[in-house]
Amino acid sequence: MTSKMINNNDMAIRSALEDAERIAIFSHIHPDGDAIGAQLGLAQVLRQLGKTVDIYNQTGRPESFAFLPGMNDLSPWTDQSPEPDVKIALDCGNLDRLGLSQAAWAGKRTITIDHHAGHEPFSDLNYVDSESPATCAIMADLCRKWGFPVSAEAATCLLTGIHTDTGSFRYEKTSADTFSTAAWLMTCGADLAAIRYHVFESTSKARFQLLNALYNSSEFIFDGKVAVAEISHDLMASLGVADDEVHGLVGQLKEVQGVELSILLRELATGEIKVSLRSKQYVDCNQLAGEFGGGGHVRAAGCKLKLPMAEARQVLTERARSYLKREAL
Ligand code: 5GP
Ligand code: MN
């Protein structure tokens, strides 16, 4: 068995997938468009190759991506789940984010494909490219290179993840290669109209009201370099907003001129505070989130704090201050 290092030996991964009969695909807890798109896309590809494919997520189905083909098959992994020949984790930077214990993840052969900064390898075979803007972009490029069949449905899943993780081709990891990959997925038949309608033009009224509340309560501190907003559990409950509908809101706070870093603090049902960080030009969000046991990417990261809201806000903004350029203060 190979050691758990980032070896990026994609041909070994291809062989492992080809040799397997039953493959289980996992995505990170509270999956976003990239995690779910890569998972459902790869499931389609492997099923077309004649594999038996099971798909798992420990926090269940994200309703906002319910339009993607294959979503109904998604369920949490349990002790009773059929043991596959290969387990593959997508868009997941460490084992914690998978929501499984080490014992549950262990299997005949384990694989991870990911693009997170500071990835901590936890599988036998690992393909990690932190320069890539999306796991879906890596997945599409590998399928193309390997000559695996990418149907129109699979292409729609993969293009969804590229669209969402690049902020619709805006964020800094978007490159000429990203557009080439997206163009190739369009030639495979990706349904851009479906993505536009379901991902970008189907905001619920509850989410819209939350956005309104967020705009009204957001504060601009440290000379306007940092935007901070809070969402209480009561507000989420009173508006009837689902957890996965909060995606993207922190990015909107960053759109204000002069803001370098946006911070969204959301109180979970458990009382913990889920923190989302986004930066524009220089703050290393991955490092800042890392100070609190979280992680992600340089321009987008998150963590959880076991503190009351006011304290969480205090410690986070205090640490955030040290990341701002001196002349900015
Ligand atoms: P979001 O703010 O949208 O929840 O997450 C932004 C990025 O940070 C995503 O790539 C996500 O995987 C990562 N992330 C969010 N929360 C955590 C966390 O608690 N731990 C780690 N390691 N990564 C996180
Ligand atoms: Mn991703």
From TrEMBL:
It comes from Peptococcus simiae. Its EC number is 3.1.3.7. Residues 224-325 form the DHHA1 domain. Signal peptide: none annotated. GO terms for molecular function: 3'(2'),5'-bisphosphate nucleotidase activity. It is an enzyme of class 3 (hydrolase). Keywords: Hydrolase. This is DHH family phosphoesterase. Residues 22-162 form the DDH domain.
